[in-house]
């Protein structure tokens, strides 16, 4: 028995030696390591750039202007967000910019240039960037945080020189610069910030001799969340953000003939998407029936009549001026009670997707009554809002609604319609 067991053991050992010996033959191995699937993201942010009531613009309380793809080149076109961030570029704009990444984390600022790096890095190259923004009210404080590779020849706001430097090292946390911008440099209305950056010639490799601009302008105004002179009026202006308790409308004493307008912008990172503005949780409340309502024949409760007496225009405000121009696309003209499912970009609009990393501008004009004339949008100094069509049946009525900005992926989703969205 022992012999048999030993023999079997010997056979097993020999077999193992033979198997191991096969490694002596020619062989080759190719490995594709660390394969990864990472889900993309669609992150929508919204700001309200302008709001007005009876021609009075809402004062701006806070404003943030940053380097991103909405900055324009004086030679034409938009700035390019750089995909390569040099390891030496550690500037964080006073803690707002996350060093080492270029996705606009935290404060929205991104390293930009005219192209993906200098086209001819061996020679000097100067690029001028312009950013247009709106301001209304009195400026309390304004601070510019800036980092460049190499130097910024001039920083100019509305023709006023804010800063300049010949120092070639402005791109680290210790060398980035901060400037207090005088309040008198700002104007009510459209402002233009112009920054000229020079990249010194050197290596012919754009990653060895890179070029870039990173900045943030923070402005605060003298206002307490924008109280209007109109009785019961209230407004807010806010920068790009995830919405919390912000309101596009919050008016407590609307009268026939009152009117206003809003300029809203949408930002999505970092995939192309469809874009809608939806009305949800609409409550057209009778509130209470007072004598003039009853006399006018309004004896039903609910619903109220205010929703059918707020006349709205909405349009793609492609030039970002808060005015409905004849070349721009009218999205819808209707009363608020049927003002649902606004398709800013869907398969029915014919304007394609909302490109990731870009900004979409949306204009809205409302009238307590009826807009008169062709395309009356409250964009002129004397808009025609006819309040005579809004009778006593509307008195004390209250209209509340959630306005929901909604995005959905564009890729692999060609037939999307805003009217098909079911909100949770």
TrEMBL record:
Signal sequence coordinates: 1-21
Matching InterPro entries: Peptidase_M73_camelysin (IPR022121), Signal_pept_SipW-depend-type (IPR023833)
Pfam families: Peptidase_M73
Superkingdom to which the source organism belongs: Bacteria
Record keywords: Signal
Keyword match Chaperone: no
Entry-linked NCBIfam families: cognate_SipW (TIGR04088)
Protein name stated in the entry: SipW-cognate class signal peptide
């Amino acid at each position: 028995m022992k012999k048999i067991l030993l023999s079997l053991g010997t056979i097993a050992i020999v077999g193992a030696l033979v198997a191991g010996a096969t490694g002596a033959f020619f062989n080759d191995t190719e490995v594709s390591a660390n394969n990864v699937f990472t889900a993309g993201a669609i992150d929508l942010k919204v700001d309200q750039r302008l709001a007005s009531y009876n021609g009075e613009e809402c004062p701006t309380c806070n404003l943030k202007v940053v380097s991103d793809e909405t900055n324009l080149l004086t030679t034409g076109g938009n700035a390019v967000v750089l995909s390569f961030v040099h390891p030496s570029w550690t500037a964080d704009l006073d803690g707002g910019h996350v060093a080492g990444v270029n996705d606009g984390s935290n404060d929205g600022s991104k390293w930009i240039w005219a192209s993906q790096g200098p086209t001819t890095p061996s020679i000097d190259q100067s690029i001028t960037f312009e950013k247009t923004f709106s301001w209304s009210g009195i400026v309390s404080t304004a601070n510019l945080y800036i980092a460049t590779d190499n130097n910024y020849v001039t920083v100019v706001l509305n023709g006023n020189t804010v800063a300049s430097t010949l120092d070639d090292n402005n791109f680290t946390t210790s060398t980035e610069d901060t400037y207090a911008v005088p309040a008198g440099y700002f104007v009510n209305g459209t402002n233009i910030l112009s920054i000229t950056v020079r990249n010194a010639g050197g290596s012919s490799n754009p990653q060895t001799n890179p070029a870039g601009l990173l900045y943030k302008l923070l402005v605060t105004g003298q206002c307490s969340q924008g109280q209007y002179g109109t009785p019961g009026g209230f407004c807010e202006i806010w920068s790009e953000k995830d919405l919390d308790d912000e309101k596009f409308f919050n008016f407590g004493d609307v009268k026939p003939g009152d009117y206003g307008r809003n300029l809203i912008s949408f930002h999505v990172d970092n995939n192309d998407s469809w874009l809608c503005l939806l009305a949800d949780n609409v409550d057209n409340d009778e509130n209470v029936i007072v004598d003039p309502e009853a006399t006018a024949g309004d004896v039903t409760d609910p619903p109220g009549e205010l929703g059918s007496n707020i006349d709205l225009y909405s349009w793609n405000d492609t030039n970002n001026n808060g005015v409905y121009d004849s070349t721009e696309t009218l999205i819808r003209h209707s009363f608020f009670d049927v003002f649902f499912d606004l398709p800013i970009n869907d398969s029915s609009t014919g304007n394609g997707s909302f490109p990731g990393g870009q900004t979409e501008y949306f204009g809205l004009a409302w009238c307590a009554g009826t807009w008169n004339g062709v395309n009356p949008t409250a964009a002129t100094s004397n808009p025609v809002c006819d309040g005579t069509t809004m009778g006593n049946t509307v008195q004390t009525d209250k209209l509340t609604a959630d306005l929901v900005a909604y995005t959905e992926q564009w890729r692999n989703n060609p037939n999307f319609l805003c009217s098909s969205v079911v909100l949770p």
